Amino acid sequence: MEPIQLTATAKTPEVLFDATKGLISFKGRSIPEHTVEFYKPLHQWIDEYGQNPQAFTTIEIFVEYYNTSSSKSILDLFKRLENVHKMGHDMVVQWYYEEDDEALLESGEEYESMVDIPFELISVPVDDDEDDE
């Protein structure tokens, strides 16, 4: 199964889906103009991966911002993964948020309450040095 690797843009997250590593990773902003078209191949990949997943799958999510339509697509992604989990495959969602971002923490908690997948809500320090480089 071919991995999906997308470079982040101003409107779309960096994406790495690697079946051999059991890794599903998003990082960045998710405000694509055509959300359904952006997420459709990702959903299809998860459906295919679910037919022969690794013994353990790690889902890393560190979105700094996403719009409403992305929220629905992310939930759909989680629902597809939940189906894989219900078939007896171990996985964890590692939901990263900056320590001062209450809204993103709450989003992680909401997703956690909507799907039957173990979640780890991981606070990361705010990087104030980015502008100094």
Descriptive notes:
With 133 residues, the protein is of the alpha/beta class. The chain has one domain: Transcription Regulator spoIIAA (2-Layer Sandwich). 35% of the residues lie in helices and 32% in strands. It is built from 3 helices and 6 strands. The chain has a 6-stranded mixed beta sheet with strand order 1-2-3-4-5-6, with helices on one face. Helix 1 runs parallel beside helix 2. The longest helix has 19 residues. The radius of gyration is 15 Å and the shape is globular. The termini are far apart. The mean pLDDT is 94.
Q: What descriptors fit this protein?
A:
single chain; 133 residues; alpha/beta; Transcription Regulator spoIIAA
Question: How would you concisely characterize the structure shown here?
Answer:
By secondary structure, the protein is of the alpha/beta class. Helix content is 35%, strand content 32%.
User: The CATH topology, please?
Assistant: Transcription Regulator spoIIAA
* Total of domains: 1
CATH top level is Alpha Beta
Shape: globular
Q: Helical amount among residues, as a percent range?
A: 25-40%
Q: From the alpha-carbon coordinates, what is the Rg to the nearest angstrom?
A: 15 Å
Strand order of the largest sheet: 1-2-3-4-5-6
* Gap from first CA to last CA: 39 Å
Sketch the topology as an H/E string, one letter per element: EEEHEHEHE
Tally of individual helices:
3
List unreliable stretches of 5+ residues. Answer: none
Computed structural class: alpha/beta
Q: Classify the beta-strand content into a percent band.
A: 25-35%
Mean pLDDT: 94
CATH architecture: 2-Layer Sandwich
Biggest sheet descriptor: 6 strands, mixed
Annotation, overall tally of beta strands: 6
